[in-house]
Amino acid sequence: MSLDSLYQESILDHCKNPRNYGAIDGPKVAIHQENPSCGDQIDLQLVLDDAELIQDIKFTGHGCAISQASASMMTLAVTGKTRNEARSAVQTFRAMITKGEALTDDLEELEALQGVRKFPVRVKCAMLAWNALESLLNG
Ligand code: FES
Question: Which is nearest to 112 in space by CA: 93, 87, 134, 91?
Answer without folding.
Answer: 93
